[in-house]
Amino acid sequence: QVQLVESGGGLVQAGGSLRLSCAASGRTFTNYAMGWFRQAPGKEREFVAAITRYGTNTYYADALKGRFTISRDNGKNTVYLQMNSLHPEDTGVYYCTARLWNYSERFASYDAWGQGTQVTVSS
User: Fold this and answer.
1) Model confidence over 70-95: pLDDT tens digits?
2) Which residue of 28, 46, 80, 98 sits 20 to 30 Å from the alpha carbon of 37, by its own alpha carbon?
Protein backbone atom coordinates (compact mmCIF):
# COMPACT_ATOMS: atom_id res chain seq x y z
CA GLN A 1 0.00 0.00 0.00
CA VAL A 2 1.28 3.45 -0.83
CA GLN A 3 1.58 5.90 2.07
CA LEU A 4 0.64 9.53 1.55
CA VAL A 5 1.52 12.59 3.62
CA GLU A 6 0.06 15.99 2.82
CA SER A 7 1.49 19.37 3.74
CA GLY A 8 1.01 23.01 2.88
CA GLY A 9 -2.38 23.76 4.35
CA GLY A 10 -3.03 26.79 6.51
CA LEU A 11 -4.93 30.02 6.92
CA VAL A 12 -5.14 32.43 4.00
CA GLN A 13 -7.23 35.45 3.16
CA ALA A 14 -9.75 35.37 0.36
CA GLY A 15 -8.03 35.95 -2.95
CA GLY A 16 -4.81 34.40 -1.74
CA SER A 17 -3.02 31.25 -2.82
CA LEU A 18 -1.75 28.04 -1.30
CA ARG A 19 0.17 25.10 -2.66
CA LEU A 20 -0.47 21.70 -1.16
CA SER A 21 2.04 18.91 -1.45
CA CYS A 22 1.60 15.18 -1.03
CA ALA A 23 4.61 12.92 -0.63
CA ALA A 24 4.15 9.27 -1.49
CA SER A 25 6.18 6.30 -0.33
CA GLY A 26 6.04 2.55 -0.15
CA ARG A 27 5.12 1.64 -3.70
CA THR A 28 6.01 2.57 -7.25
CA PHE A 29 4.64 6.06 -7.59
CA THR A 30 4.11 5.87 -11.32
CA ASN A 31 1.71 2.97 -10.88
CA TYR A 32 -0.78 5.40 -9.35
CA ALA A 33 -3.07 8.04 -10.63
CA MET A 34 -3.27 10.73 -7.97
CA GLY A 35 -6.13 12.84 -6.79
CA TRP A 36 -7.20 15.51 -4.37
CA PHE A 37 -10.53 15.57 -2.56
CA ARG A 38 -11.82 17.97 0.03
CA GLN A 39 -14.39 17.94 2.77
CA ALA A 40 -16.01 20.95 4.37
CA PRO A 41 -17.68 20.72 7.79
CA GLY A 42 -21.06 19.06 7.49
CA LYS A 43 -20.58 18.22 3.82
CA GLU A 44 -19.63 15.16 1.86
CA ARG A 45 -16.17 14.61 0.54
CA GLU A 46 -15.92 16.00 -2.98
CA PHE A 47 -13.61 15.57 -5.91
CA VAL A 48 -11.18 18.40 -6.56
CA ALA A 49 -8.67 17.22 -9.15
CA ALA A 50 -6.82 14.20 -10.48
CA ILE A 51 -3.78 13.50 -12.60
CA THR A 52 -2.79 10.43 -14.54
CA ARG A 53 0.28 8.37 -13.84
CA TYR A 54 2.74 10.32 -15.95
CA GLY A 55 0.93 13.62 -15.76
CA THR A 56 -0.35 13.43 -19.30
CA ASN A 57 -3.91 14.27 -18.37
CA THR A 58 -5.49 16.29 -15.59
CA TYR A 59 -9.08 16.50 -14.46
CA TYR A 60 -10.89 19.05 -12.32
CA ALA A 61 -14.20 19.63 -10.68
CA ASP A 62 -16.02 21.99 -13.01
CA ALA A 63 -16.35 24.73 -10.42
CA LEU A 64 -12.60 24.76 -9.77
CA LYS A 65 -11.26 24.88 -13.30
CA GLY A 66 -9.03 27.87 -13.84
CA ARG A 67 -8.24 28.38 -10.16
CA PHE A 68 -6.70 25.06 -9.14
CA THR A 69 -3.86 23.21 -10.83
CA ILE A 70 -2.74 19.67 -10.09
CA SER A 71 0.74 18.51 -11.03
CA ARG A 72 3.18 15.77 -10.10
CA ASP A 73 6.91 15.25 -9.95
CA ASN A 74 7.57 11.55 -10.40
CA GLY A 75 11.23 12.03 -9.58
CA LYS A 76 10.21 13.27 -6.12
CA ASN A 77 7.19 10.99 -5.66
CA THR A 78 5.12 14.08 -4.99
CA VAL A 79 1.84 15.50 -6.23
CA TYR A 80 0.89 19.15 -5.84
CA LEU A 81 -2.26 21.22 -5.79
CA GLN A 82 -1.80 24.89 -6.57
CA MET A 83 -4.82 26.86 -5.41
CA ASN A 84 -5.28 30.45 -6.51
CA SER A 85 -7.96 33.08 -5.96
CA LEU A 86 -9.18 31.21 -2.93
CA HIS A 87 -12.71 31.73 -1.65
CA PRO A 88 -14.07 31.15 1.85
CA GLU A 89 -16.08 28.28 0.31
CA ASP A 90 -12.78 26.51 -0.40
CA THR A 91 -12.33 25.99 3.33
CA GLY A 92 -12.05 22.36 4.34
CA VAL A 93 -9.77 19.41 4.85
CA TYR A 94 -7.91 18.49 1.69
CA TYR A 95 -7.00 14.87 1.15
CA CYS A 96 -4.43 13.40 -1.19
CA THR A 97 -5.34 10.05 -2.64
CA ALA A 98 -3.89 7.37 -4.90
CA ARG A 99 -5.55 4.92 -7.24
CA LEU A 100 -3.78 2.08 -8.96
CA TRP A 101 -3.49 2.61 -12.70
CA ASN A 102 -6.45 4.83 -13.63
CA TYR A 103 -7.94 8.00 -12.27
CA SER A 104 -11.46 8.33 -10.93
CA GLU A 105 -13.71 11.05 -9.59
CA ARG A 106 -15.31 8.68 -7.09
CA PHE A 107 -13.64 8.75 -3.69
CA ALA A 108 -14.74 5.20 -2.94
CA SER A 109 -12.60 3.89 -5.79
CA TYR A 110 -9.29 5.16 -4.43
CA ASP A 111 -6.82 2.81 -2.76
CA ALA A 112 -4.97 5.05 -0.32
CA TRP A 113 -5.54 8.31 1.51
CA GLY A 114 -3.43 10.80 3.36
CA GLN A 115 -4.39 12.15 6.76
CA GLY A 116 -5.61 15.43 5.30
CA THR A 117 -4.47 19.01 5.63
CA GLN A 118 -6.67 21.88 6.78
CA VAL A 119 -7.21 24.83 4.49
CA THR A 120 -9.02 27.83 5.94
CA VAL A 121 -9.88 30.84 3.81
CA SER A 122 -10.96 33.93 5.71
CA SER A 123 -13.22 36.58 4.20
Assistant:
1) 999 999 999 999 999 999 999 999 99
2) 28
